[in-house]
Amino acid sequence: MRFFIKLSEIMEGNPSSVAVEYGDEVDDALNDVKETGRDQREALPGEPKCVICGRYGEYICDETDDDVCSLECKQTLLCRVANRGMQVVPQPLERLPATDECFYVRDSDDKSRSQVLTSAQTDLLRRKLEINVKGNVVPAPILSFSSCNLPQKLLQNIEAAGYEMPTPVQMQSIPAALIGKSLLVSADTGSGKTASFLVPVISRCANFRNGHLQNQKKPLAMVLTPTRELCIQVEEQAKLLGKGLPFKTALVVGGDAMAGQIYRIQQGVELIVGTPGRLIDLLIKHDIELDDIMIFVLDEVDCMLQRGFRDQVMQIFRALSQPQILMYSATISQEVEKMASSLVKDIALVSVGRPNKPNKAVKQVVIWVDSKKKKQKLFDILMSQQHFMPPAVVYVGSRFGADLLSNAITVTTGMKALSIHGDKPMKERREIVRSFLIGDIPVIVSTGVLGRGVDLLSVRQVVVFDMPNSIKEYVHQIGRASRLGEEGVAIVFVNEENKNLFPELVDILKSSGAAIPRELSNSRYILSSSFGKGSKKRKH
Ligand SMILES: Nc1ncnc2c1ncn2[C@@H]1O[C@H](COP(=O)(O)OP(=O)(O)OP(=O)(O)O)[C@@H](O)[C@H]1O
Asked: Which keywords does this Swiss-Prot/TrEMBL entry list (predicted)?
């Protein structure tokens, strides 16, 4: 059984006969291939076993010759192999995996420049990469960074960053954003959304500057994010990708002196990255001209359009002259879709993978534990050689709680743990994140400030000590345990106090194939919520 689709056939073949190859069988056979390990049966004695999960190894992975039970386990296998540094991509532009987020088309020669997909090929490619698109005139996904006329220097910077191939969300949103489309994009945590807006922002800004010689350089693009930490990270990545181009950035966040930020903007920058509060402050107190802003990015858009941020974001938006808007998150509700569509006419909606669901690469281990026993349970985990995988982030619900818990960890386990939250000065927050990222601190206890967007590269374990207020935030928090499909673990403490989240949490756990603690599945809050779907709900 051959376990791949040949991209060369998408590219060259007659669209009506594009073959998805599973041995000699075509299309229909696709339905028979097990998507996940859960769809597969146990192996009978003497039968091959999946090298990942041990179920019936019905298929042979072409790239490694190992037995696997499903597309999901094949993906996991390929990720592992890739992480071990083995070359598993067989031929440039030859093979495209069925649902493999971390296994992309390699851009190794110039062939891709001339390749234009027909609409049938585009549909097939989108189906394979789980890309859904709604809206008019959305270009086909790109197969390589070099296929969309990016400035040469930007291509070099992308390569220097180690990005060999675009991820699926980049494949679709980069070409669409480059032609000026406004987009609402949802894709998994850790799937490369940041570069998917930075690449077009940098390209469009650099091209504009090269084409318009002006003395006064007003900002051309603005990215808003909900936290200072995320702004810092986005600006750093923008600098890296924009190096050597006419592309300067300014960071506008609270906690840093405003004078320096204004000075920098007045010297002429292309991109402002900031939090809404500080930006409004700056706009009210100082004369910053925003009329040249042509791209407005809302990262973590669902959070940015929530009460709390929405008014500030709208105030900033109204100060701009109808820019292209790019909006991104791993969690986008219908309400956000409606709000986004009302902001801008002719918006395109792009979603990659399973919207609003946790990243499949994060294993969720949910433990029922009473509030009074949570600390001890956490200490047990941190002191267990088997279960502790530093560096780890522990998420709590309050600033005070973060301080108390980090002290308690240090006292009880002897391990260095620090807290991070909104009451700490900016300088200290920067230093804490830096020490954590370079491995000086094995455990960081955080409120929501590190819950969304931040790319904590080496983190493979998070502990959700206090469940956040919504399942959306939960999806983002546990998403810190995996980047680009690498496997991670989220240990999650739940108890009766989180009852308002039980129905959604159980749905999420079921859809991820995670074990559900007995107390949770037997809870009357679950039983009553699933009782007679469509009939009236009981009131508690
Ligand atoms: N094409 C690529 N090739 C290799 N690595 C990439 C590529 N694109 C992005 N990355 C890396 O993948 C990691 C995750 O990307 P990023 O932080 O943008 O994810 P995200 O989708 O914004 O996640 P989240 O929703 O959690 O914010 C980063 O370390 C980034 O540098």
From this structure: ATP-binding, Helicase, Hydrolase, Nucleotide-binding
- 192 in contact with ligand 1, CB cutoff 6 A: yes
| CA-proximal residue: ligand 1, atom 25 (nearest) | 189
Residue-level pLDDT, tens digit, the chain, 540 residues: 333 333 443 443 333 322 222 222 222 233 467 888 878 887 776 778 888 888 888 888 877 778 888 888 888 888 777 666 433 333 333 333 333 333 334 344 444 444 577 888 899 999 999 999 998 889 999 999 999 899 999 999 999 999 999 999 999 999 999 999 999 999 999 999 999 999 999 999 999 998 877 777 899 999 999 999 999 999 999 999 999 999 999 999 988 888 899 999 999 999 999 999 999 999 888 878 899 999 999 999 999 999 889 999 999 999 999 999 999 999 999 999 999 999 998 899 999 998 899 999 999 999 999 999 999 999 999 999 989 999 999 999 999 999 999 999 999 999 999 999 999 998 999 999 999 999 999 999 999 999 999 999 899 999 999 999 999 999 999 999 998 889 999 999 999 999 999 999 999 999 999 999 998 988 776 655 443 343 343 333
Contact 465, 393 (CB under 8 A): no
**Could you give phi then psi for residue 20, rounded to 5 degrees?**
-95, 120
ipTM above 0.90?
yes
The strand pairing partners of 462, in sequence order, are: 393, 490
Residue 19 near residue 13 (C-beta atoms within 8 A): yes
- Which region holds residue 321: left if phi is over 0, alpha if psi is between -120 and 50, else beta? beta
d(CA 268, CA 158): 24
By the 8 A CB rule, do 443 and 391 touch?
Answer: yes
* Cα-to-centroid distance, 364 and ligand 1 (Å): 21
Q: Is 451 in the pocket of ligand 1 (CB under 6 A)?
A: no
Residues 6+ apart with CB under 8 A from 11: 93, 115, 117, 121
User: Omega of the bond prior to 358 within 30 degrees of 0, cis?
Assistant: no
